[in-house]
Amino acid sequence: MIVVTGGAGFIGSNFILDWLARSREPVLNLDALTYAANPANLRAIANDARHVFVRADIRDRDAVSALLAAHRPRAVLNFAAESHVDRSIHGPAEFVSANLDGVFSLLEAARAYWEGLPAAERDAFRLLQVSTDEVYGSLRADDPPFTETTPYAPNSPYSASKAGADHLVRAWCHTYGLPTLTTNCSNNYGPHQFPEKLVPLTIVSALAGRPLPIYGDGSNVRDWLFVEDHCAALRRVLEAGRPGETYNIGGGGERSNLQVVRMLCRLLDELSPRADGRSYAAQIRFVADRPGHDARYAINADKLRQELGWQPAHGFEEGMRRTVAWYLANREWVEQVQTGAYRAWMETHYARRATQEEMA
Ligand code: NAD
Ligand code: DAU
Known about the structure:
Its cofactor is NAD(+). Its EC number is 4.2.1.46. There is one protein chain. By secondary structure, this protein is of the alpha/beta class. The protein has a domain at 2-187 and 226-252 and 296-315: Rossmann fold (3-Layer(aba) Sandwich), CATH 3.40.50. Helix content is 45%, strand content 15%. It has 14 helices and twelve strands. The strands form three sheets. The protein has a seven-stranded parallel β-sheet, sandwiched between helices. The protein has a three-stranded mixed β-sheet with strand order 7-9-11. A two-stranded parallel sheet has the order 8-12. α6 links the parallel β5 and β6. α2 (61-71) runs parallel beside α4 (93-115), α7 (198-207) runs parallel beside α9 (257-271) and α9 crosses α11. The mean pLDDT is 95. The structure holds nicotinamide-adenine-dinucleotide (NAD) and 2'deoxy-thymidine-5'-diphospho-alpha-D-glucose. Nicotinamide-adenine-dinucleotide (NAD) binds next to α1, α4, β5 and β7.
C-alpha cells in the first residue's frame, strides 16, 4: 500500500486515478477536505476497494501515526498543501501552518513509523514530498531554466512555506536517514483543477460571460505541464529515484499568461462558440498586478529525463484542448464547485482586481 495525502485535490486525485489504472497496489488517501478538495474527483473509484479514504489532517500526528501503524504503507506521497499564491498573499497563516507545520508533523509521524520497521522494509520505504518550482524564485528573460542546484529564493508566502518544507524534508533525510525524495514541478493544468487558478478560472469565467482577469500586462511566463505528465514523473521518481535526491519536473512549455489565455479563448471559440459569434478574447481585462508577482519560471528537467528516462507525453496545445473539453463535458462538476467558498473568494478576487481603466 501507498499513502497519498491531499488526494482529493487537483493533482492528488489525478495521481490516484492514474495509479489505480496502472497498478494493483492499494492507496490510502488522507485528506483534510479543505475548500480545494472535491470528493467528486474520485467518483470513478467510489466502488474500488483498493482506494481507502480517510478524512485527516497532516498536522494531526496521532491520527497520521495510527493510520501508518494500521496500514503499513511502503511509501507516503505528500500532496497536501494550501496551493494558491493569491490566497497566501491575503492570508499567509494557514499556509505556514498547513505547508510547514504540516510537513514537520508528517515527517515526525513517518520517522517514528519508519524507525519501527524491519530492516528490509526500512530500506524500501520512501517519503516523497511533492513540491514546486516556485521555491527557486523568479527568472529574468535571458536566465537559464532552474536546475536542482539553483539556490532557493522564494518570494510569496506560498513558495516560502513550500521552500521551508523542502528544507525540513532534506534535514530529516540527512540527520535521521529517512529515505526521502523531493520533486519540484512547474505549473500543472488539466481536469479537476479548482477554478481559482489561471487555466480553469479562464475557462469557467469565459463560459459564464465574466471578465478574464490578466494581471499586469500578461507578460509573466510560466512553464506549463499537463497533470498526467506530472503523475507519470512522480510514479517514476517513486520507483527509481535515489533517496535524498531532488528532481525537477517540467515539460519545456514556457508561455506568457496572455498567450495561455488567448489559446484558451481560441479553443473555446472552436469547441463552444459564443452565442453572439464574437471571440471569448473580448472578455479579457488587464487588471492590477499580483503583489510580488514572479516574472518567469522555467524548468530544466534533464536529471529526470537522463537518470530516470521520463519525458512528457502531451504537447501544450493537445493538453489544453483536452482540458477545455473536460470542463465543457463536466458542467455539473463546475457548477458544484462554484458554490459558497468559491463564490465568496471570487467576489473578493474580482473586487480587488479593479481594471486598470477603472484605476486610471
Ligand atoms: P489543491 O489545492 O488542488 O489540493 C490540495 C489538497 O490537499 C486538497 O484536497 C486539500 O483538502 C488537501 N489538504 C490541504 N491541507 C491539508 C492538510 N493540512 N492535511 C490534509 N490534507 C490537506 O493542490 P494541487 O494543485 O493539487 O497541489 C498539490 C501539491 O502539488 C501541493 O503540495 C502543491 O504545492 C504542489 N504543486 C502544485 C502545482 C500546481 O500547478 N498546481 C505545481 C507544482 C507543485
Ligand atoms: O509553478 C508551480 C505553481 O503553479 C504551484 O506551485 C502552485 O500551487 C500553483 O497554484 C501555480 O502557481 P501560479 O501562481 O503560477 O498559478 P496561478 O494559476 O495562480 O497563476 C498563473 C499565472 O497567471 C500567474 O503569473 C498569475 C497569473 N494570473 C492568475 C490568476 C488567478 C492572472 O493573470 N490572472 C488570474 O486571475
